[in-house]
Amino acid sequence: MNLAIPVITHEAERYLQALAEELEIPPSRYEQADRSYLSFGEWLHREKSTVLRYDPQVYVQGSFRLGTAIKPLNDAEEYDVDSVCEFRLLQKASLSQFDLKQRLGIEVKAYAREHGMTKPVEEGRRCWILEYADGAQFHMDIVPAIPNGAEQRMLLSRHGLDTTWASTAIAITDKDHTAYEVISDEWPRSNPKGYSEWFRSKVVDVEKRRVVDGVRAQVESMPTYRIRTPLQSAIMILKRHRDHMFEHRREERPISVILTTLAAHAYQGDLTIGRALLSILTGMDRFIERVNGQDFIRNPTDPLENFADKWPKHPERRAAFYEWLGQARADFLQAARLAERQQISDAVARGVGRSLADKAKVRSLGLAAPAVLTAGLVRSEASARSSAVRLEGGGRNA
What we know:
The protein is 45% helix and 12% strand. The chain is α+β, with helices and mostly antiparallel strands. The chain folds into two domains: 10-24 and 226-379; 27-193, Beta Polymerase, domain 2 (2-Layer Sandwich). Keywords: Antiviral defense, ATP-binding, Magnesium, Metal-binding, Nucleotide metabolism, Nucleotide-binding, Nucleotidyltransferase, Transferase.
């Protein structure tokens, strides 16, 4: 659907800027994620590690890497930090998916015991889940993986597809995969590092235009999660609208990587959050292709992968996406036209919840004008001082 991008009032711009700020997670959460994955990586490299000889590398993927993580809907929900443990010196020919997952599982369980974690380690479909102490509101999913760059490059080349991001591709485990328990070349594919670099290219290009020359070098070297652009803020707002709308229909809600990918494609380099949000909403469905009669949302780092591959088997998920998109358009396009803060808050509250909408209204009263020429370079002085910030990644939880 081709829609015209409406004019947005200054009041609505201020409000949406305040809304994004209300959704930002505390810098301490990023630092907590950083400490957790670095600590686990150090554990795998200790002298008695059973996997040390495989050169395990642990890195974060998903929203904590991309800078699109948002506060949970309520205190009962947890922050989900997605990470990868890539065994650099293992190959598909030497073991099965099952074997790889069990080798990592031994170390995950030993780490939990050593650090006095009372909650049992859980096995997910693709990962191991470390549950931190009560009150931490935090768990870490660790996906075992091995390098798959060479194979990925050959696969894409055979189909005449872009191989720009192939070098960082990995093969991962999946309990539901047909070859899970046998040695095989057929493993599920992923490329979280490649995805994060693709997303970063969208973020850095815009942020360098937003800031003065003297700080552009800082942007180049800065971890993506510490940069704040209208694209990231708009994605955060859309994710909260999605979460609120599907709070009681979680199995149907559009997955984050679909929202993030379509938003990044539709983003036109707008320099304010409101303009970015409206341009994304009016154009994001144009990047859903039709291939052999089915919807296809390409992974930009693996054009053979379809992020909407579950839609044919679960048509309710496709319907839910378009239901959400229609409602988000209605809510935010209405808010964009309004000039009275209470009316804007009322329009947005339907999609994000009354409590959050009211907090944004209060915050907006203290904002002068939409931030166009200044950049949110560092989220806090504590983040700036952190010497161990090296988050890497990307993926389906983006």
